[in-house]
Amino acid sequence: MIIPILDNGSLTLNAWSLAGSILLVIFYCLWLFFTLFRSRKSRKLRIVFITIRTLALLLLLAMICDLRLDFTRWRNQAPQTLVLFDLSASMDSAWTRESLADFYQHPLTQRLEKETRIVRFGGGESGKKLRSWPRYDDFNAPVTDFESLVSSSLENLEHTPDQLVFLTDGQNVKGLDAKQITFPREITWLLVGVGDTVTLGRFTVLSWDLPHTAVAGDSARIRARISYEGEETVEGVFELFDHQQPLSESHPLVFEPASARNVSFDLVPEYQGYLALSLRFTDQRDNDMPVKGYTRLSVRPKQTTVLIISPPDPDVNFIRYHLHLAERPVFYTAETWEKEHPEELPDLLLLGPGESSEKYAHVPTIQVRGCEEAERVEVSGFRVTNPLMLTHLHDRPALNREIWSRFPPVTAFPDGEGIPILEDEEKKAVVLAYQAENRHIIFNGCGFWRWAWAGYGTERVGAWNRLIGNIARFLMAPRQEWAWLELPRDPLYAGISAEIPVIKGPDVTPGMASGRIILTDSTGSLVWNSSLLTLDQPVTYVSLPGLDPGYYQATLDIFFQGEKAGTDSLKLPVSALNPERLVTGCNMKTLREWANEQNGHALHLSEWDKGEQFLDFDEEYTRHVIHVDFRRNLLWILLLLILLTSEWIIRKTAGWE
Questions:
Q1: CA 210 to chain centre
Q2: What Cα–Cα distance (Å) separates residue 337 from each residue in 208, 306, 309?
Q3: Same domain, 269 and 177
Q4: Which of 265, 298, 420, 654 has the smallest number of Cβ neighbours within 10 A?
Q5: Tally of domains in the chain
Q6: How far are the Cα atoms of 136, 199, 432 from residue 471, in angstroms, in the given order?
Q7: Do 507 and 388 meet the contact criterion of CB atoms below 8 Å apart?
Q8: What is the DSSP letter of 252?
Q9: 160 and 223 in a common domain
């Protein structure tokens, strides 16, 4: 409820609070009438007591009801200037004690103080009001986030300022890209670059070209398309690293400003597993420059080993003879494997009818169920129920469906362990199934050797070879085909959150797979885990919390139709090095682009004299509002205490009870 006060003010009060206050005042006046005016005490003292108690009651009611009076008047007023300081740690190398003192004593700075209503804010991630100009020792904030710094500073101001001066080196470590950050339209804003201008640019890996898997002990070629953002030509070499261990070095290269080139590396991986690949550029003066972009390379053993545990069976024999990979696999029987590799596990296990092996339970397995059990049926006209990479036998979708529908009949069972991949819906039989948790492909019957003869003289020729090869590659791939983790694009630093990408396999139907990320430290202790992620996009980004320095293991548990389908993991190095110390100097290129994109102005500190043309110093006839707040003002609380104390002293002095 708003009640006008004279011609230039208003009273803001809740209607219920107002009604209650009026009733309370009425009862108070009645109480005064029946007590004080009927008293035989001195009339003058009665008037004093009535006045003090009434004032105290009215003041208490105003505070309880949160009464606020707004008085308005028009007057000439100088513009308000918000001077915002980037107080991040990188700024202590941008400023010197001398340059900071020179800025404070500069005529334009002095004029801002005298002719405008200046307000000072500063910070790294959030802006706080400064009582005075910052000192050199105040530039120590661990992280810069321009978006948060600007928005929080404006929110902490009671009114939107007329103009803003932001002093920074342009090195934004966290949050949105500077060019995407906007200011209110009514603000005139000026970016002032501080520090020596950065002449060296930044490299970014636009794309990687690398083999799906490399072979341990064999040479592999890695190519990267790298862009250079800089104002000067640079010459130097790139070094390829795996977890800070150098792997290879490029030939000397020359990069012109705003150019991109292909860079090649040759390396020979020593062990199977994963390589976390990163780059560093060193120029002719041994200066290191940052390179944004990471990738991962999977390394497999030089030759695939296949262990066969099976009685004589035509299906197992035909799978063996048509198992064609990049390198011809080496086949072992159970006896020869135990003799030659007693402490090792094979790359692939081929199980025949009625066979099982607990020792190799976690080895990728192709299993033939056989036809020894009852309730088997003859099936044909197969349909792919759950498409996987192994079910794609031809690039043409129509022909791919025809290949499956025209395979010769086989014998299968109505029941099958795992997720059905291939079914005969008419006879309700499972032909091919996948046990996701232990990575088993099961041929759920017998007679599959007939498929080896399917399609001779037609476009379907070789479909059996492709099927067996697809299954082997699918099972043995180090990188899970359901989904896998990729390294974050930017390095990880202690205390700074980052996003880790989860890549959905190209052959997985959106929404069919889900996953959960678990983060453990070097001791194996749980540090953090995500909620369940539905993988309905090609790439799902998951925000990681800020971590302490060290190495962490990120594990992705993958689920397909509610069943665990596998895992993928990688190591995450978290550096203790403050990112504010990595790149120093004034990035005027970014500041000018930001100003051009968002209709602002940018200049270097050495051009501070020119800032006068962008700033306003003229007074304007503006509406000035005076707020009188009873609840939140300490002055009214003190006044209430004084009134109550005075009444008590006077009453005791006069001898009243």
A1: 26
A2: 39, 10, 11
A3: no
A4: 654
A5: 5
A6: 65, 53, 11
A7: yes
A8: P
A9: no
DSSP sequence for 259-314: EEEEEEEEE---SSEEEEEEEEEEETT--EE-EE--EEEEEE-SS-EEEEE-SS-H
- Same domain membership, residue 208 and residue 241: yes
Element (H, E) at 123: strand 117-123
Can you give the pLDDT at residue 10?
44
Cα separation, 462 vs 271, in Å, equals 34
pTM: 0.44
Q: Return the H-helix or E-strand segment holding 379.
A: strand 377-379
Please give the pLDDT value at position 366.
Answer: 94
Considering 276, 300, 324, which residue would you say is the last residue of a domain? 300
Cα distances (Å, whole numbers) of residue 511 to 118, 504, 514: 55, 10, 7
Q: Which three-class secondary structure state does DSSP give residue 10?
A: strand
* 257 token code pair: 């400003």
Residue 576 and residue 582: Cα distance in Å, rounded? 12
Structure tokens at 466: 């492709």
**Helices assigned H by DSSP within 347-501:** 397-405, 463-476
**Residue 221 and residue 533: Cα distance in Å, rounded?**
35
Q: Which residues of the chain have pLDDT under 50?
A: 1-12
Among 625, 15, 59, 632, smallest CA distance to 3 is for 15
How far CA 268 is from CA of 213, 275, 303, 486, 547, in Å, comes to 12, 11, 15, 22, 33
User: Is there a single domain that holds both residue 294 and residue 315?
Assistant: no
Print the domain residue range for 394. Answer: 305-476
Contacts of 147 (CB under 8 A, 6+ apart): 175, 176, 180, 181
What are the Cα distances from residue 172, in Å, to 387, 576, 625? Answer: 44, 18, 38
Angle between helices 15-35 and 43-64 (to 10 degrees): 160
Q: What would the two tokens of residue 303 be?
A: 């030759």
Q: How many C-beta atoms lie closer than 10 Å to residue 180's C-beta?
A: 12
For residues 336 and 316, what is the distance between their CA atoms, to the nearest angstrom?
A: 18
For tokens 């108690």, name the residue.
Answer: 53
What CATH number does residue 286 fall under? 2.60.40.10
- 401: CATH: 3.40.50
Distances (CA, A) of 212 to 57, 473, 508: 82, 11, 18
Give the amino acid at 179: K
Instruction: Determine how β-strand 365-368 pairs with β-strand 383-384.
Output: unpaired
DSSP assignments along 480-536, one per residue: -SSEEE---SS-EETT--EEEEEEEPTTSPTTTEEEEEEEE-TTS-EEEEPPPEE--
Please check whether residues 341 and 463 belong to one and the same domain: yes
Q: What is the CATH number of the domain that holds 607?
A: 3.40.50.410
Q: From 420, 447, 476, give the residue that closes a domain.
A: 476
Half-sphere exposure of 60 (CA within 13 A, CB side): 13
DSSP-derived letter for residue 197 is B
CB atoms within 10 A of CB 628: 15
pLDDT at 608: 92
Q: What is the pLDDT of residue 5?
A: 39
Residue 230 tokens, joined: 């800089």
Residues 183 and 264 in one domain: no
Do 154 and 6 lie in one domain? The reply is no
Taking the alpha carbons of 630, 635, 638, 639 in that order, is the dihedral positive or negative? negative
For residue 335 the two structure tokens come to 């006896």
Question: What gap in Å lies between CA 579 and CA 592, rounded to an integer?
Answer: 23
